[in-house]
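Q: Convert this sequence to structure tokens.
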Amino acid sequence: EQFFFMAPIGALMALEFGLTAAPASQPRSAFYGQVVSGSISLAFTYIPMAVWLRQAIASSLAIAMMGKLGVLHPPAGAASILLASGQFGWKHYGLLLAATMLSFIPAVLINNSSTKRQYP
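A:
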């Protein structure tokens, strides 16, 4: 059940360790992107509609809102589709946010130990 967020967190790892200078990999975008997309997606689960339509609308709105707020984060778009499915709730969303925040610790320690890279 808690393995649902492995894809978004795996994508976050690729950004944090592979594209350290990219705006989408910065802690601000990662955390607030997840907050925005998860909140929108879970809010849509309370509206009765077909799952495929809810996933399409929620993820589109989440991506547009992240872009408008300047916190665009591609893994948050993936998490938006998962959360809008209705199979996952606020508990899973909390785990996703906790995993996102905890991922910053090794990313900062490992990336800043090199003279060639800096994160954030």
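The chain has five helices and no strands.
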